[in-house]
Amino acid sequence: MAREVTLETFAAAWADGGLVVDVREAYEYAAGHVPGARFMPLSTVLDRSAELPAERRVYVICASGNRSKTATDWMRSRGVDAYSVAGGTRGWTQGGRPVATGHHERTA
């Protein structure tokens, strides 16, 4: 079962340089994402989890928190200390937090 953090906990971790992985599709990511979030679409998570550091906590975000739960479970099964962000990007933006737009420049 996916571990989950609140938006408030995530915001504090993000402010401290926490590693964020966005598992939405490219068009969603381009429309607005947490600044600094790495792009790793859900369909690639199983194959690419080894690219993530095992020794560092990873915060997984999607639109609302559903896909991130799935991705978190997959990452955790591969040894990644992953946590799903409850409320997702929608909650992040509704809370008035910063958002970056545009195509991804790097992938996780």
From TrEMBL:
A Pfam family hit: Rhodanese
Annotated ranges, domain Rhodanese: 16-101
Gene3D superfamilies recorded: Rhodanese-like domain (3.40.250.10)
Classification via SUPFAM superfamilies: Rhodanese/Cell cycle control phosphatase (SSF52821)
PANTHER family named in the record: FAD-DEPENDENT OXIDOREDUCTASE (PTHR43031), OXIDOREDUCTASE (PTHR43031:SF16)
Official protein name in the record: Rhodanese-like domain-containing protein
Originating organism: Streptomyces caeni
